[in-house]
Amino acid sequence: MRRTHLLSGLLMAGLLCTGLQNLKAQTTKAYQLSSSNLKTLKETKVGSIARLDSFLTVDFPKIRYDKVVAPGPQFIISDDPEYIRVPEAIVLQEEVNPGAVRLYVYNVNGVKEPQQMKRKITAVLKNMGAEPLTFRMLKYSSQKPSTNYFQIGKKGLEDFFKSNVENDVRKVNPGEVIAIDELLEKNVVEYDQLVHGFYEFVVDQPAQISILQTAPENYGPDVFPTIKTLIPHSHENAGRGLFGVSNYTVQALDTLDTRHGVKQLIIADGNDDPWITGTIGPKKEFAQNAGNYGVMYKTKIRWKSTDGKGLALITWNSRSADNKWCGGMGLTMELKGSQGQSVVRQLPSDVLVTRAAPEAILIEVYKPDPTKEIQGDRVYLLSTWSFMFADAVGICSYRFVVAFYMKFRLIVFLGILLNGCVSSSKLSSNHKDAEFYLKDEVRPALQQNCFLGAYYRKVVSSRDYWKGIEGEVILPFMEFDESRKNSQKIGQYLDNPSVYMGGDMDGQETDIGLTWEVIKYEDGSVSQQRLAFRPFFRRAAHSSGQMSLWHYAPAQKEYYWYPGEKVYMSVEIIEDKKLRMVISGEGKYYEEVFDCEGYKLNEIGRFKRVNAIDQVRNEGKDVQPTRTIVKGAHWLYTNLFRDLEGVRVRLPMHKGRYTDMRCPDQAYFDIRQEKEEMGKGGEKIEIRGMIN
Question: What is the pTM of this model?
Answer without folding.
Answer: 0.56
